[in-house]
């Protein structure tokens, strides 16, 4: 009887530990280091601001990171913040605007390995790109990696502060290559997924005309997402060329297919 009772107790203990381990692993599985987290402020402490991460574990961000130029906290409970997960444990999720300020080589290497954004200031235009200072260290950003679009006036970026991803980290940090474009592309891809998840046939949208072609026009509906309006759908009357009915070359209202009138 005693042996049976002991066996059952040990079995219950093993089951409990298994459940606890499984529960703990689920608590942070939806968030990985480097992920962007959007959540509401649930509490403001003396040195720490607590954020709802949408998981079983609340996020923590140092209060000093959120202060404005006057040293004041411009946020209150209920406000929404967009931060990055910089470290995860079984009991907390550390959040940050990005890696910035003064940091060691280890912090930069960690940012490189986990794709954590780093804050950088464009110091100068150099051959092939830009000299950018990140955490008081010199980094190189190729001109093709500074923006999603073609950079026409490189000088416009000098003096500006942006978030970057470290794409190359060599020679113990003496050779650091960064990209702003990769970060913008990641954000754009998230937006694209949300856009396609919400769009429905018949929805009326506003877009920016990007190209006129003999057979119709291309319209940007969302950054990186274009639609095409056939020439026959541009007007109720016969149109030979798209520019015949374009008083405003930048804006167009139209419906998605199967959504009723699509002509102007």
CATH superfamily of the largest domain: Nucleic acid-binding proteins
Our count of helices gives 3
CATH topology annotation of the largest domain: OB fold (Dihydrolipoamide Acetyltransferase, E2P)
How many strand elements?
A: 14
Mind describing the biggest β-sheet? 5 strands, mixed, barrel
Biggest sheet, spatial arrangement of strands: 1-2-3-5-4
CATH class of the largest domain: Mainly Beta
Q: How big is the Rg? A: 26 Å
**What is the share of helical residues?**
10-25%
State the end-to-end CA separation. Answer: 86 Å
> Which residues sit in consecutive blocks of at least 5 with pLDDT less than 50?
22-28, 249-253, 258-264
CATH architecture of the largest domain: Beta Barrel
Mean pLDDT level: 78
Beta strand %: 35-45%
Strands, helices and their partners?
Blueprint: H1 2-27, E1 36-44, E2 48-51, E3 59-62, E4 80-88, E5 93-96, H2 105-114, E6 118-126, E7 129-134, E8 137-142, E9 161-170, E10 175-179, H3 181-198, E11 204-213, E12 216-222, E13 225-230, E14 252-255
Parallel strand pairs: 3-5
Antiparallel strand pairs: 1-2, 1-4, 2-3, 4-5, 6-7, 6-9, 7-8, 9-10, 11-12, 11-14, 12-13
């Amino acid at each position: 009887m005693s042996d049976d009772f002991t066996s059952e107790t040990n079995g219950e203990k093993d089951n409990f530990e298994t459940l606890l381990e499984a529960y703990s692993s689920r608590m942070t599985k939806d968030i990985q280091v480097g992920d962007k987290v959007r959540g509401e402020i649930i509490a403001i402490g003396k040195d720490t601001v607590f954020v709802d991460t949408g998981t079983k574990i609340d996020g923590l961000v140092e209060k000093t990171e959120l202060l404005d130029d006057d040293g004041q906290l411009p946020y209150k409970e209920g406000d929404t913040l967009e931060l990055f997960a910089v470290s995860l444990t079984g009991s907390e999720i550390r959040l940050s605007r990005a890696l910035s300020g003064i940091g060691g080589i280890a912090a930069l290497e960690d940012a490189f390995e986990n794709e954590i954004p780093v804050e950088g200031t464009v110091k100068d235009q150099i051959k092939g790109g830009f000299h950018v200072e990140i955490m008081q260290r010199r980094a190189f950003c190729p001109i093709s990696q500074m923006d999603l679009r073609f950079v026409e006036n490189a000088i416009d970026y000098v003096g500006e502060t942006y978030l970057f991803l470290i794409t190359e980290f060599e020679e113990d940090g003496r050779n650091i290559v960064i990209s702003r474009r990769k970060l913008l592309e990641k954000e754009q891809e998230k937006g694209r997924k949300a856009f396609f998840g919400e769009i429905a046939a018949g929805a009326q949208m506003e877009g920016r005309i990007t190209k006129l072609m003999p057979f119709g026009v291309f319209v940007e509906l969302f950054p990186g997402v274009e639609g095409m309006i056939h020439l026959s759908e541009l007007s109720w009357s016969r149109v030979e060329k798209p520019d015949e009915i374009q008083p405003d070359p930048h804006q167009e209202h139209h419906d998605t297919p199967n959504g009723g009138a699509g002509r102007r």
